[in-house]
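C-alpha coordinates for chain A. Residues wanted.
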Protein backbone atom coordinates (compact mmCIF):
# COMPACT_ATOMS: atom_id res chain seq x y z
CA UNK A 1 0.00 0.00 0.00
CA UNK A 2 2.99 2.33 -0.12
CA UNK A 3 3.77 4.88 -2.74
CA UNK A 4 7.21 6.40 -2.96
CA UNK A 5 8.74 7.43 0.32
CA UNK A 6 11.58 9.77 1.22
CA UNK A 7 13.72 10.70 4.18
CA UNK A 8 14.28 14.38 4.91
CA UNK A 9 17.55 14.42 6.82
CA UNK A 10 21.25 14.75 6.26
CA UNK A 11 24.37 15.47 8.25
CA UNK A 12 23.81 19.22 8.28
CA UNK A 13 21.05 18.64 10.86
CA UNK A 14 23.65 17.47 13.36
CA UNK A 15 24.20 21.19 13.92
CA UNK A 16 20.96 21.26 15.92
CA UNK A 17 22.85 20.38 19.08
CA UNK A 18 22.63 21.91 22.50
CA UNK A 19 26.04 20.45 23.18
CA UNK A 20 27.59 18.27 25.87
CA UNK A 21 27.30 18.89 29.55
CA UNK A 22 23.65 19.73 29.32
CA UNK A 23 21.94 19.59 32.69
CA UNK A 24 19.60 16.96 31.30
CA UNK A 25 22.44 14.53 30.77
CA UNK A 26 23.42 14.73 34.39
CA UNK A 27 20.58 12.33 34.94
CA UNK A 28 16.98 11.66 35.32
CA UNK A 29 13.74 13.44 35.11
CA UNK A 30 14.34 15.41 38.26
CA UNK A 31 16.82 17.75 36.65
CA UNK A 32 14.49 18.86 33.92
CA UNK A 33 11.01 18.09 32.80
CA UNK A 34 11.83 18.55 29.18
CA UNK A 35 12.46 16.39 26.20
CA UNK A 36 14.39 16.65 22.93
CA UNK A 37 17.89 16.51 24.30
CA UNK A 38 19.23 16.87 20.79
CA UNK A 39 22.84 15.92 20.48
CA UNK A 40 24.98 15.30 17.46
CA UNK A 41 25.13 11.57 18.12
CA UNK A 42 21.39 11.25 17.76
CA UNK A 43 21.25 11.84 14.03
CA UNK A 44 24.38 9.83 13.34
CA UNK A 45 23.18 6.84 15.36
CA UNK A 46 19.86 6.79 13.51
CA UNK A 47 21.09 7.30 9.95
CA UNK A 48 24.02 4.92 10.34
CA UNK A 49 21.64 2.17 11.41
CA UNK A 50 19.43 2.71 8.35
CA UNK A 51 22.49 2.52 6.12
CA UNK A 52 23.90 -0.54 7.89
CA UNK A 53 20.53 -2.27 7.52
CA UNK A 54 20.58 -1.38 3.80
CA UNK A 55 17.17 0.26 3.89
CA UNK A 56 18.38 3.71 2.89
CA UNK A 57 20.10 4.84 -0.27
CA UNK A 58 20.81 8.14 -1.96
CA UNK A 59 17.57 8.16 -3.94
CA UNK A 60 15.58 8.13 -0.71
CA UNK A 61 16.91 11.47 0.47
CA UNK A 62 14.81 14.55 0.00
CA UNK A 63 16.62 17.79 -0.82
CA UNK A 64 15.91 20.69 1.51
CA UNK A 65 17.33 24.03 2.54
CA UNK A 66 16.81 26.42 5.45
CA UNK A 67 13.22 27.55 5.93
CA UNK A 68 12.33 30.96 4.53
CA UNK A 69 11.31 33.87 6.78
CA UNK A 70 7.87 33.91 5.20
CA UNK A 71 7.29 30.30 6.33
CA UNK A 72 8.70 30.75 9.84
CA UNK A 73 6.58 33.88 10.29
CA UNK A 74 3.43 31.84 9.71
CA UNK A 75 4.00 30.67 13.30
CA UNK A 76 6.70 32.82 14.89
CA UNK A 77 6.89 36.48 15.75
CA UNK A 78 9.53 38.28 13.60
CA UNK A 79 10.98 39.79 16.79
CA UNK A 80 11.55 36.31 18.18
CA UNK A 81 13.22 35.12 14.98
CA UNK A 82 15.49 38.16 15.10
CA UNK A 83 16.39 37.30 18.70
CA UNK A 84 17.27 33.71 17.77
CA UNK A 85 19.58 35.10 15.08
CA UNK A 86 21.10 37.67 17.44
CA UNK A 87 21.80 35.23 20.25
CA UNK A 88 23.25 32.67 17.83
CA UNK A 89 26.35 34.87 17.73
CA UNK A 90 29.06 33.60 20.09
CA UNK A 91 29.01 35.54 23.34
CA UNK A 92 25.75 37.37 22.62
CA UNK A 93 23.75 35.64 25.33
CA UNK A 94 26.49 36.17 27.87
CA UNK A 95 26.43 39.88 27.11
CA UNK A 96 22.66 40.13 27.49
CA UNK A 97 21.33 37.24 29.61
CA UNK A 98 18.13 39.08 30.50
CA UNK A 99 17.34 39.73 26.83
CA UNK A 100 17.94 36.06 25.99
CA UNK A 101 15.79 34.85 28.89
CA UNK A 102 12.90 36.96 27.66
CA UNK A 103 12.64 34.63 24.65
CA UNK A 104 13.23 31.44 26.62
CA UNK A 105 16.81 31.24 25.36
CA UNK A 106 18.16 30.09 28.69
CA UNK A 107 18.62 26.88 30.66
CA UNK A 108 17.40 23.97 28.58
CA UNK A 109 17.35 26.19 25.52
CA UNK A 110 20.56 28.08 26.17
CA UNK A 111 21.90 29.55 22.95
CA UNK A 112 24.58 27.74 20.99
CA UNK A 113 26.59 29.18 18.12
CA UNK A 114 24.86 28.68 14.79
CA UNK A 115 21.52 27.82 16.37
CA UNK A 116 19.69 30.15 14.02
CA UNK A 117 20.84 28.32 10.90
CA UNK A 118 20.38 24.91 12.55
CA UNK A 119 16.80 25.67 13.54
CA UNK A 120 16.04 26.97 10.06
CA UNK A 121 17.36 23.72 8.59
CA UNK A 122 15.11 21.62 10.82
CA UNK A 123 12.11 23.70 9.77
CA UNK A 124 13.26 23.53 6.15
CA UNK A 125 13.37 19.73 6.25
CA UNK A 126 9.81 19.48 7.57
CA UNK A 127 8.51 22.09 5.12
CA UNK A 128 10.18 20.26 2.21
CA UNK A 129 8.57 17.02 3.43
CA UNK A 130 5.13 18.63 3.39
CA UNK A 131 5.72 20.17 -0.04
CA UNK A 132 6.85 16.86 -1.55
CA UNK A 133 3.79 15.07 -0.19
CA UNK A 134 1.33 17.84 -1.03
CA UNK A 135 2.65 18.06 -4.58
CA UNK A 136 2.35 14.31 -4.98
CA UNK A 137 6.10 13.84 -5.61
CA UNK A 138 6.28 11.46 -2.64
CA UNK A 139 3.53 9.66 -0.78
CA UNK A 140 5.20 9.51 2.64
CA UNK A 141 8.16 11.45 4.02
CA UNK A 142 9.96 10.90 7.32
CA UNK A 143 11.84 13.84 8.85
CA UNK A 144 13.60 12.28 11.86
CA UNK A 145 15.25 15.42 13.25
CA UNK A 146 12.01 17.34 13.45
CA UNK A 147 8.84 17.60 15.46
CA UNK A 148 9.93 20.43 17.80
CA UNK A 149 6.40 20.60 19.10
CA UNK A 150 6.88 22.77 22.19
CA UNK A 151 8.19 26.00 20.61
CA UNK A 152 5.76 28.90 20.99
CA UNK A 153 5.17 32.00 18.92
CA UNK A 154 7.75 34.12 20.72
CA UNK A 155 9.50 31.67 22.99
CA UNK A 156 11.84 28.68 22.90
CA UNK A 157 10.53 25.84 25.04
CA UNK A 158 11.72 22.33 25.81
CA UNK A 159 14.71 22.24 23.44
CA UNK A 160 12.48 23.55 20.66
CA UNK A 161 13.75 26.76 19.07
CA UNK A 162 11.31 26.81 16.18
CA UNK A 163 8.13 24.84 15.84
CA UNK A 164 9.05 23.19 12.56
CA UNK A 165 6.01 20.97 12.57
CA UNK A 166 3.60 23.89 13.12
CA UNK A 167 5.38 25.85 10.38
CA UNK A 168 4.99 22.92 7.97
CA UNK A 169 1.32 22.43 8.88
CA UNK A 170 0.63 26.14 8.41
CA UNK A 171 2.31 25.94 5.01
CA UNK A 172 0.23 22.91 4.04
CA UNK A 173 -2.94 24.55 5.27
CA UNK A 174 -2.41 27.97 3.69
CA UNK A 175 -0.26 27.44 0.62
CA UNK A 176 -1.71 24.27 -0.83
CA UNK A 177 -4.35 24.41 0.91
CA UNK A 178 -4.93 21.12 2.67
CA UNK A 179 -6.90 20.09 5.75
CA UNK A 180 -4.34 18.67 8.14
CA UNK A 181 -4.71 16.05 10.85
CA UNK A 182 -1.79 16.23 13.29
CA UNK A 183 -1.22 13.21 15.51
CA UNK A 184 1.33 13.61 18.31
CA UNK A 185 2.58 10.42 19.99
CA UNK A 186 5.39 12.05 21.97
CA UNK A 187 5.25 11.38 25.72
CA UNK A 188 4.84 15.13 26.23
CA UNK A 189 1.81 17.15 25.24
CA UNK A 190 2.15 18.77 21.80
CA UNK A 191 1.35 22.15 23.32
CA UNK A 192 3.07 24.42 20.81
CA UNK A 193 1.34 22.86 17.82
CA UNK A 194 -2.00 22.86 19.60
CA UNK A 195 -1.58 26.55 20.49
CA UNK A 196 -0.68 27.49 16.93
CA UNK A 197 -3.95 26.08 15.56
CA UNK A 198 -6.21 26.37 18.60
CA UNK A 199 -8.81 28.41 16.70
CA UNK A 200 -8.21 26.97 13.22
CA UNK A 201 -11.01 24.70 11.96
CA UNK A 202 -8.84 23.40 9.10
CA UNK A 203 -6.20 21.85 11.35
CA UNK A 204 -7.15 19.12 13.79
CA UNK A 205 -4.54 18.28 16.42
CA UNK A 206 -4.66 15.18 18.59
CA UNK A 207 -2.03 14.50 21.22
CA UNK A 208 -1.57 11.28 23.19
CA UNK A 209 0.73 11.91 26.11
CA UNK A 210 1.47 11.19 29.71
CA UNK A 211 -0.93 13.24 31.81
CA UNK A 212 0.23 16.74 32.64
CA UNK A 213 -0.44 16.02 36.30
CA UNK A 214 3.05 14.55 36.44
CA UNK A 215 4.84 15.65 33.31
CA UNK A 216 6.04 18.73 31.46
CA UNK A 217 4.42 20.86 30.04
CA UNK A 218 1.44 20.20 32.32
CA UNK A 219 -1.19 20.90 29.67
CA UNK A 220 -3.16 18.62 27.36
CA UNK A 221 -6.28 17.97 29.42
CA UNK A 222 -9.40 16.56 27.81
CA UNK A 223 -11.30 19.84 27.99
CA UNK A 224 -8.72 21.72 25.93
CA UNK A 225 -10.89 21.48 22.84
CA UNK A 226 -9.95 24.60 20.90
CA UNK A 227 -11.49 28.01 20.46
CA UNK A 228 -14.10 29.16 17.91
CA UNK A 229 -14.10 28.71 15.01
CA UNK A 230 -11.75 25.80 15.70
CA UNK A 231 -13.53 24.33 18.71
CA UNK A 232 -13.43 20.55 18.75
CA UNK A 233 -10.35 20.43 16.55
CA UNK A 234 -7.94 20.18 19.48
CA UNK A 235 -8.12 16.75 21.03
CA UNK A 236 -6.12 15.45 23.97
CA UNK A 237 -5.66 12.01 25.47
CA UNK A 238 -3.78 12.44 28.76
CA UNK A 239 -2.75 8.92 29.78
CA UNK A 240 -1.58 7.54 33.09
CA UNK A 241 1.98 6.60 34.01
CA UNK A 242 2.51 2.86 33.25
CA UNK A 243 -0.08 2.89 30.50
CA UNK A 244 1.97 0.47 28.40
CA UNK A 245 1.51 -0.61 24.79
CA UNK A 246 -1.89 -2.13 25.23
CA UNK A 247 -3.46 0.90 26.89
CA UNK A 248 -1.80 3.35 24.52
CA UNK A 249 -2.96 1.43 21.44
CA UNK A 250 -6.47 1.09 22.84
CA UNK A 251 -6.67 4.86 23.34
CA UNK A 252 -5.34 5.43 19.85
CA UNK A 253 -7.88 3.05 18.30
CA UNK A 254 -10.82 4.48 20.22
CA UNK A 255 -10.16 8.06 19.18
CA UNK A 256 -7.70 8.68 16.35
CA UNK A 257 -9.20 6.67 13.50
CA UNK A 258 -12.81 7.81 14.14
CA UNK A 259 -11.51 11.36 14.51
CA UNK A 260 -9.86 11.08 11.11
CA UNK A 261 -13.13 9.79 9.65
CA UNK A 262 -14.97 12.73 11.17
CA UNK A 263 -12.47 15.41 10.24
CA UNK A 264 -11.80 14.31 6.66
CA UNK A 265 -8.16 15.44 6.41
CA UNK A 266 -6.15 15.74 3.21
CA UNK A 267 -2.79 15.29 4.91
CA UNK A 268 -1.58 13.41 7.98
CA UNK A 269 1.32 14.95 9.91
CA UNK A 270 2.64 12.96 12.85
CA UNK A 271 5.08 13.54 15.67
CA UNK A 272 6.50 10.11 16.45
CA UNK A 273 8.48 10.95 19.57
CA UNK A 274 9.56 7.71 21.24
CA UNK A 275 10.25 9.17 24.68
CA UNK A 276 7.33 7.19 26.05
CA UNK A 277 9.51 4.10 25.81
CA UNK A 278 10.10 2.18 29.03
CA UNK A 279 13.86 2.84 28.81
CA UNK A 280 13.37 6.56 28.39
CA UNK A 281 14.17 8.39 31.60
CA UNK A 282 11.80 11.26 30.85
CA UNK A 283 8.44 9.59 31.03
CA UNK A 284 6.63 6.68 32.63
CA UNK A 285 4.36 5.58 29.81
CA UNK A 286 6.34 2.30 29.56
CA UNK A 287 5.81 1.71 25.85
CA UNK A 288 7.98 -0.73 23.92
CA UNK A 289 9.47 -0.67 20.43
CA UNK A 290 6.84 -3.23 19.50
CA UNK A 291 4.20 -0.70 20.52
CA UNK A 292 5.83 1.99 18.38
CA UNK A 293 5.94 -0.42 15.43
CA UNK A 294 2.20 -1.10 15.88
CA UNK A 295 1.49 2.64 16.07
CA UNK A 296 3.43 3.23 12.85
CA UNK A 297 1.33 0.55 11.13
CA UNK A 298 -1.88 2.19 12.29
CA UNK A 299 -0.76 5.64 11.12
CA UNK A 300 0.20 4.19 7.76
CA UNK A 301 -3.22 2.56 7.36
CA UNK A 302 -4.93 5.76 8.48
CA UNK A 303 -3.02 7.82 5.91
CA UNK A 304 -4.19 5.55 3.11
CA UNK A 305 -7.78 5.28 4.37
CA UNK A 306 -8.41 8.92 5.14
CA UNK A 307 -5.71 11.14 3.62
CA UNK A 308 -5.16 9.78 0.14
CA UNK A 309 -1.93 8.28 1.50
CA UNK A 310 -0.37 11.70 2.23
CA UNK A 311 1.73 11.32 5.37
CA UNK A 312 4.60 13.32 6.84
CA UNK A 313 6.16 11.79 9.95
CA UNK A 314 8.57 13.63 12.25
CA UNK A 315 10.95 12.08 14.76
CA UNK A 316 10.10 14.09 17.87
CA UNK A 317 11.54 13.33 21.29
CA UNK A 318 13.48 10.35 22.54
CA UNK A 319 16.47 10.16 24.81
CA UNK A 320 17.87 6.65 24.78
CA UNK A 321 20.23 6.96 21.83
CA UNK A 322 21.63 3.45 22.10
CA UNK A 323 18.72 1.09 22.46
CA UNK A 324 15.61 3.07 21.55
CA UNK A 325 15.84 6.04 19.16
CA UNK A 326 17.74 4.44 16.24
CA UNK A 327 15.54 1.32 16.38
CA UNK A 328 12.33 3.36 16.60
CA UNK A 329 13.41 5.39 13.56
CA UNK A 330 14.29 2.22 11.64
CA UNK A 331 10.93 0.61 12.41
CA UNK A 332 9.08 3.75 11.36
CA UNK A 333 11.12 4.17 8.19
CA UNK A 334 10.63 0.50 7.28
CA UNK A 335 6.88 0.87 7.70
CA UNK A 336 6.65 4.09 5.74
CA UNK A 337 9.00 3.09 2.93
CA UNK A 338 7.87 -0.52 2.61
CA UNK A 339 11.49 -1.70 3.09
CA UNK A 340 12.23 -4.91 4.95
CA UNK A 341 14.63 -4.75 7.83
CA UNK A 342 17.05 -7.65 8.17
CA UNK A 343 16.10 -10.14 10.88
CA UNK A 344 18.77 -8.91 13.25
CA UNK A 345 20.27 -5.49 13.91
CA UNK A 346 23.49 -5.50 11.81
CA UNK A 347 26.46 -6.69 13.85
CA UNK A 348 28.72 -4.00 12.42
CA UNK A 349 26.47 -1.28 13.75
CA UNK A 350 26.16 -3.02 17.11
CA UNK A 351 29.94 -3.27 17.44
CA UNK A 352 30.11 0.46 18.08
CA UNK A 353 27.07 0.45 20.38
CA UNK A 354 26.61 -2.40 22.79
CA UNK A 355 22.99 -3.42 22.79
CA UNK A 356 20.62 -6.21 21.90
CA UNK A 357 20.46 -7.71 18.40
CA UNK A 358 16.70 -7.39 18.14
CA UNK A 359 14.73 -4.56 16.56
CA UNK A 360 11.85 -4.96 18.99
CA UNK A 361 11.69 -6.44 22.44
CA UNK A 362 10.71 -10.09 22.53
CA UNK A 363 7.01 -10.50 23.22
CA UNK A 364 6.32 -10.29 26.91
CA UNK A 365 4.62 -13.16 28.58
CA UNK A 366 1.19 -12.29 29.89
CA UNK A 367 0.87 -11.45 33.55
CA UNK A 368 4.45 -10.37 33.68
CA UNK A 369 5.62 -7.43 35.80
CA UNK A 370 2.48 -7.38 37.88
CA UNK A 371 0.33 -6.11 35.03
CA UNK A 372 -2.72 -7.63 36.61
CA UNK A 373 -2.32 -6.13 40.05
CA UNK A 374 -4.71 -3.56 41.50
CA UNK A 375 -2.44 -0.70 40.45
CA UNK A 376 -2.53 -1.86 36.82
CA UNK A 377 -6.29 -2.15 36.94
CA UNK A 378 -6.51 1.36 38.35
CA UNK A 379 -4.39 2.66 35.44
CA UNK A 380 -6.62 0.84 32.98
CA UNK A 381 -9.78 2.19 34.55
CA UNK A 382 -8.52 5.78 34.58
CA UNK A 383 -7.47 5.56 30.94
CA UNK A 384 -10.80 4.03 30.00
CA UNK A 385 -12.61 6.95 31.62
CA UNK A 386 -10.39 9.41 29.76
CA UNK A 387 -10.99 7.71 26.43
CA UNK A 388 -14.76 7.65 26.90
CA UNK A 389 -14.83 11.30 27.85
CA UNK A 390 -12.75 12.26 24.84
CA UNK A 391 -14.98 10.25 22.53
CA UNK A 392 -18.06 12.01 23.84
CA UNK A 393 -16.44 15.42 23.60
CA UNK A 394 -14.73 15.06 20.26
CA UNK A 395 -16.66 12.61 18.10
CA UNK A 396 -20.09 13.01 16.56
CA UNK A 397 -22.41 10.34 18.03
CA UNK A 398 -22.99 8.69 14.68
CA UNK A 399 -19.23 8.28 14.29
CA UNK A 400 -19.09 6.58 17.68
CA UNK A 401 -21.63 4.07 16.44
CA UNK A 402 -19.70 3.29 13.29
CA UNK A 403 -16.42 3.10 15.25
CA UNK A 404 -17.57 1.43 18.46
CA UNK A 405 -15.34 0.90 21.47
CA UNK A 406 -13.80 -2.55 21.51
CA UNK A 407 -15.58 -4.93 23.83
CA UNK A 408 -18.72 -2.89 24.02
CA UNK A 409 -21.58 -5.16 25.02
CA UNK A 410 -25.18 -4.31 24.25
CA UNK A 411 -27.44 -4.21 27.29
CA UNK A 412 -30.58 -2.65 25.87
CA UNK A 413 -33.02 -4.91 24.11
CA UNK A 414 -34.36 -3.90 20.77
CA UNK A 415 -37.51 -1.84 21.16
CA UNK A 416 -40.64 -3.95 20.77
CA UNK A 417 -41.75 -3.95 17.18
CA UNK A 418 -44.12 -1.58 15.53
CA UNK A 419 -45.02 -1.45 11.89
CA UNK A 420 -42.80 0.92 9.91
CA UNK A 421 -44.61 4.20 9.50
CA UNK A 422 -44.55 6.93 6.88
CA UNK A 423 -45.49 10.57 7.47
CA UNK A 424 -45.39 13.82 5.57
CA UNK A 425 -43.84 17.20 6.14
CA UNK A 426 -44.21 20.16 3.85
CA UNK A 427 -40.93 22.05 3.91
CA UNK A 428 -40.45 25.40 2.13
CA UNK A 429 -38.41 23.62 -0.54
CA UNK A 430 -41.00 20.93 -1.15
CA UNK A 431 -42.79 17.93 0.32
CA UNK A 432 -40.90 15.33 2.33
CA UNK A 433 -41.67 11.77 3.34
CA UNK A 434 -40.80 10.81 6.92
CA UNK A 435 -40.05 7.14 7.57
CA UNK A 436 -39.06 5.17 10.64
CA UNK A 437 -37.81 1.64 11.24
CA UNK A 438 -35.78 2.03 8.09
CA UNK A 439 -34.03 -1.25 7.40
CA UNK A 440 -30.44 -1.03 6.26
CA UNK A 441 -31.47 -2.50 2.91
CA UNK A 442 -33.82 0.43 2.27
CA UNK A 443 -31.23 3.00 3.38
CA UNK A 444 -28.71 1.50 1.00
CA UNK A 445 -31.16 2.07 -1.89
CA UNK A 446 -31.84 5.74 -1.12
CA UNK A 447 -29.73 8.65 -2.30
CA UNK A 448 -28.29 11.01 0.32
CA UNK A 449 -28.31 14.77 -0.24
CA UNK A 450 -24.71 16.07 -0.42
CA UNK A 451 -25.69 18.70 2.18
CA UNK A 452 -25.61 15.94 4.81
CA UNK A 453 -21.97 15.61 5.63
CA UNK A 454 -21.60 14.88 9.28
CA UNK A 455 -18.29 13.20 8.88
CA UNK A 456 -17.80 11.49 5.58
CA UNK A 457 -16.50 12.72 2.27
CA UNK A 458 -19.26 11.62 -0.01
CA UNK A 459 -22.93 10.85 0.00
CA UNK A 460 -22.35 7.18 -0.69
CA UNK A 461 -20.31 6.82 2.49
CA UNK A 462 -22.97 8.71 4.42
CA UNK A 463 -25.60 6.27 3.21
CA UNK A 464 -23.45 3.40 4.41
CA UNK A 465 -23.11 5.06 7.82
CA UNK A 466 -26.89 5.30 8.17
CA UNK A 467 -27.22 1.67 7.17
CA UNK A 468 -24.61 0.67 9.77
CA UNK A 469 -26.48 2.56 12.51
CA UNK A 470 -29.72 0.87 11.47
CA UNK A 471 -28.01 -2.52 11.79
CA UNK A 472 -27.06 -1.91 15.43
CA UNK A 473 -29.40 -4.01 17.57
CA UNK A 474 -30.70 -1.15 19.73
CA UNK A 475 -30.66 1.65 17.15
CA UNK A 476 -33.38 3.28 15.11
CA UNK A 477 -32.88 5.50 12.09
CA UNK A 478 -35.67 7.83 11.01
CA UNK A 479 -35.24 9.65 7.71
CA UNK A 480 -36.84 12.49 5.78
CA UNK A 481 -36.57 12.02 2.04
CA UNK A 482 -37.95 13.70 -1.05
CA UNK A 483 -40.59 11.88 -3.13
CA UNK A 484 -37.69 11.04 -5.47
CA UNK A 485 -35.91 9.16 -2.67
CA UNK A 486 -33.19 11.65 -1.68
CA UNK A 487 -32.53 11.68 2.09
CA UNK A 488 -32.32 15.27 3.36
CA UNK A 489 -32.42 14.59 7.09
CA UNK A 490 -32.25 11.87 9.71
CA UNK A 491 -32.59 11.19 13.40
CA UNK A 492 -30.67 8.34 15.02
CA UNK A 493 -31.76 6.88 18.37
CA UNK A 494 -29.02 4.77 19.88
CA UNK A 495 -27.99 2.90 22.93
CA UNK A 496 -25.72 5.31 24.80
CA UNK A 497 -22.02 4.54 24.80
CA UNK A 498 -20.72 3.61 28.23
CA UNK A 499 -18.92 6.35 30.07
CA UNK A 500 -21.52 8.70 31.44
CA UNK A 501 -23.44 8.30 34.65
CA UNK A 502 -26.68 7.93 32.68
CA UNK A 503 -25.51 5.20 30.31
CA UNK A 504 -25.82 2.44 32.87
CA UNK A 505 -29.50 3.13 33.65
CA UNK A 506 -31.70 0.41 32.19
CA UNK A 507 -34.20 1.36 29.51
CA UNK A 508 -32.39 4.52 28.53
CA UNK A 509 -31.70 5.53 24.93
CA UNK A 510 -29.95 8.51 23.42
CA UNK A 511 -30.95 10.68 20.50
CA UNK A 512 -27.49 10.55 18.99
CA UNK A 513 -27.97 12.65 15.90
CA UNK A 514 -30.42 15.09 14.40
CA UNK A 515 -29.08 16.09 11.03
CA UNK A 516 -30.65 18.11 8.22
CA UNK A 517 -28.93 18.84 4.89
CA UNK A 518 -27.66 22.41 4.62
CA UNK A 519 -30.08 23.35 1.83
CA UNK A 520 -33.10 22.13 3.82
CA UNK A 521 -32.59 23.90 7.13
CA UNK A 522 -34.86 26.50 8.74
CA UNK A 523 -37.92 24.76 7.33
CA UNK A 524 -38.92 22.95 10.51
CA UNK A 525 -37.54 19.68 9.14
CA UNK A 526 -35.52 18.87 12.27
CA UNK A 527 -38.50 19.47 14.58
CA UNK A 528 -40.89 17.49 12.41
CA UNK A 529 -38.46 14.60 12.14
CA UNK A 530 -37.76 14.47 15.86
CA UNK A 531 -41.45 14.62 16.80
CA UNK A 532 -42.18 11.86 14.32
CA UNK A 533 -39.22 9.81 15.59
CA UNK A 534 -40.29 9.71 19.26
CA UNK A 535 -44.03 9.22 18.65
CA UNK A 536 -44.19 5.41 18.67
CA UNK A 537 -45.76 3.90 21.74
CA UNK A 538 -42.73 1.80 22.86
CA UNK A 539 -40.86 5.04 23.67
CA UNK A 540 -43.33 5.55 26.54
CA UNK A 541 -41.39 2.82 28.38
CA UNK A 542 -38.07 4.58 27.86
CA UNK A 543 -36.10 7.57 28.99
CA UNK A 544 -34.62 9.38 26.02
CA UNK A 545 -31.68 11.69 26.58
CA UNK A 546 -29.76 13.96 24.25
CA UNK A 547 -26.97 16.44 24.63
CA UNK A 548 -25.67 19.27 22.55
CA UNK A 549 -22.14 20.50 23.03
CA UNK A 550 -21.08 24.12 22.72
CA UNK A 551 -19.14 23.07 19.69
CA UNK A 552 -20.53 20.96 16.92
CA UNK A 553 -18.93 19.49 13.84
CA UNK A 554 -21.37 21.51 11.80
CA UNK A 555 -21.36 24.74 13.77
CA UNK A 556 -18.90 26.54 11.51
CA UNK A 557 -21.24 26.01 8.57
CA UNK A 558 -24.38 27.03 10.43
CA UNK A 559 -23.28 30.64 10.92
CA UNK A 560 -24.62 30.55 14.51
CA UNK A 561 -22.88 31.29 17.78
CA UNK A 562 -22.67 28.44 20.28
CA UNK A 563 -25.34 30.08 22.45
CA UNK A 564 -27.70 30.64 19.53
CA UNK A 565 -27.12 27.07 18.42
CA UNK A 566 -28.04 25.88 21.91
CA UNK A 567 -31.28 27.86 21.65
CA UNK A 568 -32.18 26.25 18.32
CA UNK A 569 -31.44 22.78 19.68
CA UNK A 570 -33.47 23.40 22.84
CA UNK A 571 -36.51 24.53 20.81
CA UNK A 572 -36.30 21.50 18.51
CA UNK A 573 -36.19 19.13 21.48
CA UNK A 574 -38.82 20.94 23.54
CA UNK A 575 -41.22 20.75 20.60
CA UNK A 576 -40.82 16.97 20.74
CA UNK A 577 -41.61 16.73 24.46
CA UNK A 578 -38.09 16.92 25.86
CA UNK A 579 -37.22 19.01 28.89
CA UNK A 580 -34.00 21.00 29.33
CA UNK A 581 -32.32 19.76 32.52
CA UNK A 582 -29.48 20.98 34.66
CA UNK A 583 -26.76 18.47 35.38
CA UNK A 584 -23.27 18.53 36.81
CA UNK A 585 -22.14 15.73 34.51
CA UNK A 586 -18.68 17.15 33.71
CA UNK A 587 -19.00 16.79 29.95
CA UNK A 588 -22.07 19.02 30.03
CA UNK A 589 -21.24 21.29 32.93
CA UNK A 590 -17.89 22.43 31.59
CA UNK A 591 -19.47 24.96 29.23
CA UNK A 592 -22.63 27.06 29.65
CA UNK A 593 -23.62 26.62 26.01
CA UNK A 594 -23.79 22.85 26.41
CA UNK A 595 -27.28 21.40 26.53
CA UNK A 596 -28.78 18.35 28.20
CA UNK A 597 -32.38 17.29 27.53
CA UNK A 598 -34.50 14.29 28.45
CA UNK A 599 -37.92 12.90 27.70
CA UNK A 600 -39.26 10.46 30.28
CA UNK A 601 -41.89 8.17 28.78
CA UNK A 602 -45.34 8.07 30.39
CA UNK A 603 -45.02 4.44 31.48
CA UNK A 604 -41.54 4.72 33.01
CA UNK A 605 -41.96 3.45 36.58
CA UNK A 606 -41.47 6.04 39.36
CA UNK A 607 -38.44 4.25 40.79
CA UNK A 608 -36.60 4.43 37.50
CA UNK A 609 -37.65 8.03 37.03
CA UNK A 610 -36.26 8.82 40.48
CA UNK A 611 -33.03 6.97 39.77
CA UNK A 612 -32.58 9.09 36.65
CA UNK A 613 -33.31 12.36 38.47
CA UNK A 614 -30.92 11.47 41.27
CA UNK A 615 -28.09 11.14 38.76
CA UNK A 616 -28.54 14.61 37.30
CA UNK A 617 -26.67 16.36 40.07
CA UNK A 618 -24.06 14.52 42.07
CA UNK A 619 -21.94 17.34 43.33
CA UNK A 620 -22.45 18.59 46.87
CA UNK A 621 -24.63 21.67 46.75
CA UNK A 622 -25.34 23.01 50.26
CA UNK A 623 -28.63 24.83 50.55
CA UNK A 624 -28.36 28.60 50.90
ZN1 LIG B 1 1.93 3.62 2.06
ZN1 LIG C 1 8.79 14.55 24.42
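Reply:
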Amino acid sequence: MSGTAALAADDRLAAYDFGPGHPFQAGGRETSGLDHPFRAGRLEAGLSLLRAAKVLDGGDLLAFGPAADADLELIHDPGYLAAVARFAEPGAAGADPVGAARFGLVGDNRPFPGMDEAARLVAGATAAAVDAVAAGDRTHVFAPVAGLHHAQRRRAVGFCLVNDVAVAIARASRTWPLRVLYVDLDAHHGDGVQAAFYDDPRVCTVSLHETGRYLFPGTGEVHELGRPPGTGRSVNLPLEPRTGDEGFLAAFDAVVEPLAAAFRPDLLVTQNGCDGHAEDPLSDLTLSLRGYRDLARRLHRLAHRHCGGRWVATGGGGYDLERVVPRAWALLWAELSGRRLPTRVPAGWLAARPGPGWWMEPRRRRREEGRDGPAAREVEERNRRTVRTVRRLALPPSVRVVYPLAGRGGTTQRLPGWEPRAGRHLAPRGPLVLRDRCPASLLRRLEVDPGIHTFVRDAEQEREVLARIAEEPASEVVVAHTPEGVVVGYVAVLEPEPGTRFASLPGLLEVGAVEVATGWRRGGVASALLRFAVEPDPFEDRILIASGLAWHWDLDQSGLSATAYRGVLARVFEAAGFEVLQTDEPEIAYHPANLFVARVGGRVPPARRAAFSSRLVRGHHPLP
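The chain has a mean pLDDT of 89. Residues 1-3, 139-140, 300, 304, 309 surround zinc ion (ligand 1) (CB under 6 Å).
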